[in-house]
Amino acid sequence: MAAHAETAPYVDAFRARAGEPPWLAARRAASLDHFAALGFPTRREEAWRFTDLRPLERAIFPPVAAPLRGAAGDIARWRLPGVTHRIVLVDGGFAPDLSAIGTLPHGVYLAPTARALVERPALVEAALADGGETGRQPFAALNAAYFTDGFVLALEPGAVLEAPVEVIHLGSAGAARSHHLRCVVQLGAGSRAQLVETCAGDGPYWTNMVTAIHLHEDAALVHVRIEDEGQQALHFSLLRASLDRAAHYDAFALTLGARLSRQDIQVRFDGPGAACDLAGAFLLRGEQEATTAIVVDHAVPQCTTRELFKGVVDDRAHGVFLGRIVVRPDAQKSDAQQVNRNLLLSRRAAVDTKPELEILADDVKCSHGATVGDLEEESLFYLRTRGIPEGEARQLLVEAFAAETLDRLAPGPVRVHVASHLTRWLGAGSAP
User: Are 317 and 289 contacting, i.e. CB atoms less than 8 angstroms apart?
Assistant: First the structure.
């Protein structure tokens, strides 16, 4: 029997999966028990104090029994221009007709998680060992119990992937369902890759995703995520990245969609000289709720963190930024900067921001800051005196504010692709 009433529908719906290896069946059952014991987070927990879970509590989202796979067939809007290695997942299941993995360089493995469980089970098993089925991550535990698919990207030492890997997660219209994706990225020493993920769709579904990333010594990953789920959808994701000596993780997250969205990003430095650059923006309107929660753990010396996140919030939407950087006692020579700036476009819009530094070492260089405000009247007046109508002037200022985060992306097709989504969001707001 579930210890918490809200978990009962998900516990009762669980069924053993025929043909799975015993270790996975045991892991699923243990994860489900952990989810039932934890229950949904509450506002009494500091990490969830600002996140409104009522859209999840008011409805039940049974796991998709059989992913539709090819039903959401139009991906033109989400595709990257140029040559990519593309995986498309529909309702949590691999859609081969929409995917185009192509020819991969020597030393590169890319496949759906369900296939990797057969071909590379050790990769998935290692990711499950640290994916939230322990600790206070109930939705990650639920993911471990129910995941159907996802993707696995693994590079051998020294491998270089020139073309981006493109992963499109689609939710389809229909009855309220949840799909749970488990994703793994493993880069060997000195390897290089670029990954672009898009989450989109239409309907009252719940995307629950867990991603495990491990960068070995001197590996480098550029990771771009666009969350543009349907306006009735829910989106939860947990990303855990561990960085060995001199590894580099550059991540950008653009949040545009979903009725309720929460993205947890947890980075741990396991070797000196590693660096992460985390940037992004959330642009919200209507009654959207979105939380970005980041924890960076400087566990070893001489590592660098750069964070820049911006929020643009209109109507009655609510944005949340939680940023925590921990510098442990032995992590001398740590260098960490964290900035969060937010723009309110309506009197009813709201932002909660909580940047934190926990510094337990002496020889460090760390700073953090946050601002919340509205458009500068002087800048608006200046543009209007130049003959620009007020609506257009406001849009220009908002675009300039949000676009600063795009400077963290290198010039090229990926940056243009992300900018087009930002421009589309702004254009939708200015439509009559």
Answer: yes
